[in-house]
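> forwarded from #structure-qc
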């Protein structure tokens, strides 16, 4: 990534002291050009315009910065204007170290500092310290860089200059990142970002987003890094800062390269290098040539790779840029390792590692260790290669330490909260402005209406009297209409209640006739046999258990029937609880086993023992009983009735009663659960009321289930209904 990822971006901040709106650059240039052509003696106004124009040109054309600043210094010396000399020297020093002329920049910075101290100009002095710190960071002299940046920070805090304070935090973060202290770097980056957000300074925000993105990239969190780069690119594009845009293009290209998307990486690096050439940005060109060399190397185009790396190395050696020189040397080692030319790879990797150790940058040191590991392994020096591999792993662990990730998460949450608060404040401000506008509009409207009303007062008095009379009549009519509507509503409600009562009565009678006829007929036949002495005393004793069982079942049935009657009332409350389905099914199957056997029907209970439902057990028992009796009614000799249950989904079981009996037609299926149907006689001429299925549907739905049926004439019928899952109890449900 470009030298300390924002050495180009740091140039977007406040860099001069007549810092004016960029939209005024053209008009300022016109004034300056006109004054330069003038033969009159220079004055402070002309010099200040020159220095201001120089500062405004830096983002787009550093050469213009150098030109106008030198003019400003020359004119200032001519009239001995100390402030103009210092301001111009800061601009020329800034441009010179950006172009790699560090010795010249140091001389200019030192002279400017002396002047600012004599003038007691703390703002100019803090700006000079900050730029000095940036330059030393570029030269990998981190102690000097931090010394100057802390001097600048102290001055800005003292005089409450938040914009410069934010810039100091950002540049201190860059130094700590360069030293490999990612956690500390994040602290300073987010301090800078919070101030930038507070000031709503888009240029500062763009630089801070890019810095954080570079840390994420170093931690190999590539999607998150791209997210921050895109935020930064959008802001830079809005400020028309070419240096910033070029830097973001390069950083995105590096992410693409890390993700092995080499064609896209070349695309972005090419866009970046075109901007760097236009700006004469030596640092940017070095980084871009190195990245292009690595991309071509990964694509197997080694001649292009070596050519680009060689160009980068020449520039970095000429301008003594230690960071880029180290990256380029490691790049040579990488490409030669790809070609298995381990002799050349070793030479460059060793030189790269030496500079990486001098830099202290974790990312550069880890890359150097990795390439040197590959080289030594290729040369057969496996012990040395293993040591370098361990060093590489330790460096990578340092880059991806948990503390950095935790801080990143914490700062992101804080940033999101701060952004949200700012949005809410802006929305409130917008609402207040809109409210004030509406008040003004309303006042204007009120004035207009007042004039109209005053002109119509005479007509309104007459109209009002007539209107009052009409309103009284309308009120009387409305009152009468309301009474009529209320009476009609009351009559309709009463009619509906009567209809519901009749329906309930019909259902009760039908159910009683349907479900009590069979057990009562059985008991009547038994008592007839006893009365006629048809059976012997021993036979009577043998039949007593069966009779008692029938009586017990009939009594139980009456209890459950009364329960269903209660369920039709408005105040019925469903008493759902968990129970084993097997207990109820086994009891009902046993109760009807004899009746099925008399018709030659096989009744099978296939319900598993472990199925637990959550519903009203009596309701489910009544439903199963109705389905079994219905299946027996329409089954023939040698037919089979099977009761089964299985898991339907995460919330329900499905219980099925399937028979191989006579089946039903499509017409019967469509009417089955919708209304009372004319019940067909069974296979032994059994009769019914046609209400059993409505009975079942009511109870299933009250238990939060649903019921359905499938049937084929002549092949049988399958009734299924769902019940909710229950929780397994320690004891099983006892069925009397």
């Amino acid at each position: 990534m470009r030298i300390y990822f924002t050495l180009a971006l740091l140039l977007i901040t406040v860099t001069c002291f007549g810092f004016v709106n960029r939209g005024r650059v053209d008009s300022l240039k016109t004034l300056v050009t006109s004054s330069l052509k003038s033969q009159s003696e220079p004055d402070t106004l002309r010099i200040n315009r020159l220095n201001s124009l120089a500062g405004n040109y830096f983002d787009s054309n550093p050469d213009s910065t150098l030109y106008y600043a030198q003019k400003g210094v020359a004119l200032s010396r001519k009239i001995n204007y100390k402030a103009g000399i210092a301001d111009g020297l800061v601009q020329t020093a800034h441009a010179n170290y950006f172009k790699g002329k560090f010795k010249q920049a140091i001389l200019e910075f030192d002279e400017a500092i002396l002047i600012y101290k004599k003038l007691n100009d703390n703002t100019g002095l803090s700006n000079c310290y900050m730029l000095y710190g940036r330059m030393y960071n570029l030269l990998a002299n981190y102690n000097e860089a931090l010394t100057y940046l802390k001097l600048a920070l102290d001055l800005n805090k003292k005089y409450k200059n938040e914009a410069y304070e934010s810039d100091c935090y950002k540049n201190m973060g860059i130094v700590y990142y360069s030293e490999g202290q990612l956690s500390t770097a994040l602290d300073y980056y987010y301090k800078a970002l919070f101030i930038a957000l507070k000031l709503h300074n888009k240029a500062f925000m763009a630089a801070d987003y890019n810095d954080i993105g570079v840390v994420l990239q170093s931690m190999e969190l590539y999607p998150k890094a791209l997210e921050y780069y895109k935020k930064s690119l959008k802001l830079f594009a809005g400020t028309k800062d070419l240096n910033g845009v070029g830097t973001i293009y390069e950083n995105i290209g590096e992410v693409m390269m890390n993700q092995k998307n080499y064609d896209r990486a070349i695309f972005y690096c090419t866009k970046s290098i075109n901007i760097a050439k236009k700006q004469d940005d030596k640092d940017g060109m070095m980084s871009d040539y190195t990245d292009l060399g690595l991309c071509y190397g990964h694509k197997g185009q080694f001649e292009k790779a070596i050519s680009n790396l060689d160009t980068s190395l020449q520039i970095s050696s000429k301008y003594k840029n230690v960071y880029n020189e180290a990256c380029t040397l490691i790049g040579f080692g990488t490409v030669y390792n790809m070609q298995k030319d381990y002799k050349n790879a070793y030479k460059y990797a060793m030189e790269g590692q030496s500079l990486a150790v001098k830099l202290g940058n974790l990312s550069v040191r880890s890359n150097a260790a990795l390439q040197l590991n590959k080289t030594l392994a290729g040369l057969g020096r496996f012990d040395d290669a293993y040591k370098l591999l361990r060093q590489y792993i330790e460096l990578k662990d340092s880059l991806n330490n948990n503390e950095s990730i935790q801080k990143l998460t914490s700062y992101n949450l804080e940033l999101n909260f701060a952004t949200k608060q700012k949005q809410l404040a802006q929305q409130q401000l917008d609402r207040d402005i809109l409210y004030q506008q509406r008040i003004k509009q309303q006042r204007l409207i009120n004035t207009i209406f007042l004039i109209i009303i005053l002109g119509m007062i005479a007509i309104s008095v007459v109209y009002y009297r007539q209107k009052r009379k009409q309103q009284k009549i309308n009120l009387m009519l409305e009152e009468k209409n309301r009474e009529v509507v209320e009476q009609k509503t009351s009559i309709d409600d009463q009619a509906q209640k009567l209809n519901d009562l009749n329906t309930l009565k019909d259902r009760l009678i039908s159910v009683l006739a349907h479900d009590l006829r069979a057990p009562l007929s059985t008991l009547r036949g038994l008592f007839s046999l006893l009365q006629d002495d048809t059976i012997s005393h021993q036979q009577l004793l043998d039949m007593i258990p069966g009779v008692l069982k029938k009586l017990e079942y009939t009594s139980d049935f009456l209890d459950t029937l009364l329960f269903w009657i209660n369920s039709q009332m408005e105040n019925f409350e469903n008493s759902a609880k968990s129970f084993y389905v097997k207990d109820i099914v086994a009891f009902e199957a046993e109760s009807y086993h004899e009746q099925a056997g008399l018709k030659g029907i096989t009744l099978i209970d296939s319900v598993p023992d472990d199925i637990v439902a959550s519903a009203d057990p009596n309701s489910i028992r009544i439903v199963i009983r109705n389905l079994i009796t219905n299946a027996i009614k329409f089954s023939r000799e040698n037919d089979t009735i099977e009761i089964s249950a299985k898991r339907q989904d995460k919330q329900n079981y499905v219980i099925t009663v399937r028979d191989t009996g006579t089946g039903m037609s499509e017409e019967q299926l469509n009417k089955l659960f919708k209304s009372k149907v004319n019940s067909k006689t069974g296979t032994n001429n059994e009769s019914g009321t046609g209400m059993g299925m409505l009975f079942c549907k009511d109870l299933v739905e009250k238990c939060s289930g649903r019921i359905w049926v499938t049937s084929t004439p002549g092949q049988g019928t399958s009734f299924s209904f769902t019940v909710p899952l229950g929780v397994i109890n320690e004891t099983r449900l006892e069925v009397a």
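QC bot note: The radius of gyration is 46 Å. Residues 253 and 267 are 7 Å apart (CA to CA).
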